[in-house]
Amino acid sequence: MMLIRFLLHLFVFIGALAAAGALVVSIVLMLRFPPLMIAVGSACWLLNYLLKLQRKILTKRA
Predict the structure, then answer these.
(1) The three-state (H, E, C) secondary structure of 10-30, written as one string
(2) Could you give the CA distance from residue 53 to residue 16 in angstroms, rounded to a whole number?
(3) Which helix H or strand E contains 62, and what residues bound it?
(4) Alpha-carbon dihedral of residues 16, 19, 25, 29, nearest 10 degrees?
(5) pTM (2 decimals)?
């Protein structure tokens, strides 16, 4: 049981390190290539707009 718990914590730690590394690499790439930053920014804006629109539609139905 102790070994399984250790392996679980190890995999969670490795996953957290991988996620942090991916975040750092994506930020460096966005700073290095401005069109990528524009694309990510516009994608975030579009997602925000669509979520607001969906929330507005769902509140009208209720």
Answers:
(1) HHHHHHHHHHHHHHHHHHHHH
(2) 33
(3) none
(4) -150
(5) 0.62
